[in-house]
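Assess this:
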Amino acid sequence: MKETVKKRFSIGKILMYTFLIIASFISIFPFYWMFVMATRPSAAYNSIPPTMTPGDRLVENFLAVLDKIPFFGAMWNTLVLCAVVTLVVLFISSLAGFAFAKFKFPGKNILFISILLTMIIPPQLGLIPQYYLVAKFGLLDTLFGAMIIFFLNPLGIFLMRQYIGQSVSDELVEAAKLDGCSNFRIFRSIVLPIILPAFATLGIIVFTATWGEFLWQFTVLRDPESYTIQVALSSLNTTNNVDFGMMLSGVFWATIPLVVVFLMFNKLFISSITEGSIK
């Protein structure tokens, strides 16, 4: 009995759980502090000692946000932009990953390496030519202009290629070809059901990255009716007298959709991680 208790409460496990608790606290604390500031007046932002308990101004601060910016319109624009980008990236990346993993064609390795090399190029370097092309095609102040440059995702292609290469056997693909299945039928009926965990992982990554992207959206979108939530919130910081309670209230409510998306797909996200460790 004593040996069993010692195994359950070994020093290694105690240290591991202690580290996990501390890491969880460090990760959650910024969100908690953001919530606290969203419920407080602006003066609480610079108070010493810092305020750690919620106040009673959450609704009042949020109403102030609604008076300053078209919050719900910007949220809708952002949801549409992120959803379209995520779906297009999943479609293109999975098809490209399937091709790179299971087909042989001239220049495959060179093309794949070229796609990966684009990941090391800072996105700021392409800002001017991308803006010129979007303006040339008359896509300024449109959501399509804000999303089109994110449709091709090198990281997504790499992740899908690796996952499909490990999870979908060559024998299964060859058997489907012998049965007369087209390449797209193989992808739709065999590959897609297998890579759903990778879909969830890549979808969460792309959705959150697109939601938090600011530079390109701020460059392309100048009409308040086409603002995304990031651009709309940045317009709150235009004066010397910034209401931090109001600003953080807007940031708090703008974070809620990300939490909802993660909670909806977290099981698939976790399964994609554990599946690799089990293998």
